[in-house]
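Slide 14.
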Amino acid sequence: MRQVWLPKAGRPEVFEVREAVDPEAAPGEVRIRVEAAGVNFADIMGRLGIYPDLPPMPVVIGYEVAGRVDAVGTGVDQAWVGRDVLAATRFGGYSDVVCVPQGQAFARPEGMTAALGAALPVNYLTAYQLVEIMGGLRAGQTMLVHSAGGGVGIAAIQLAKRIGATVIGTASKSKHAFLTSIGVDHVIDYRTEDFETRARVVTGGRGVDLILDAVGGDSFKKGYRLLAPTGRLGMFGISAAATGKQRSILSFLKAAASMPWLQFTPVSLIDQNKGVFGANLLHMWDQMDELGVWMEALLGHYRSGAIAPVIAEQFSFDRAAEAHHYIQDRKNVGKVLLVP
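Slide 15: predicted structure.
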């Protein structure tokens, strides 16, 4: 098999493509011949050496794949062999062969390509957790999502529109036309506008009911202030700590210093009728029974046409560095994939 290895922290060019012996499926596992693997911002944090859950380097990163099952371990029904699937991986996804517990693999709906399958697990499970499970978004409410043109942003927008909510999205100007086309009601250019000020105007001063924020730092402070009564702030990343293409202690410290360490106190939450929560999908990987229920709901939404992953670009394994540059240069509208 071929794998994209991260030998050390650094710029995207540190990646190395290596050959290895195909793994054998252990008891309870399925082996997948990978046709597409998802690239996520957590991968970039790992490459920078600032992702706390990353195993010791050298390591193969990656959390999701799609392909076809070609072997199963003992205890797994042979009917899985030959099945087109999408799957969640706990690292190791940048490989053209992976083995995962059978419970982490899901049959792809008829007509779903491997590319669409690989674009679904991380982004849509994260969005589902943020919007429907913990965010409790309801019809008629207003949701603000940062990085609206990214994979999680688009997934959250589609889920929110299915529910019947009003959506405000922040993104660079070049992405506004696309976001409007998929139903975003108000688009804010974060480079030239203050999202807190603009969102207050949009909502007539009331504020918003749900904010999804993976930026962190000062953005969390503004978001909390912007919440309407009973509003919820969902935090699922700190991209403000990863502003460059190699690790920067200064960026990390600046992001940490601007965090609202004293703002989300128990008393303030009670007095202001606001909620703050966090989501880290990787830490849910051992709750696959619950995630399986979420995934089946998402696959149902896909079959009904309510959601549809958007593919921004696909890169070969040899171009893994370009894939990371593409995301960090904020060029992507939708999901970036690696294809063997």
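Speaker note: The first helix runs from residue 41 to 48.
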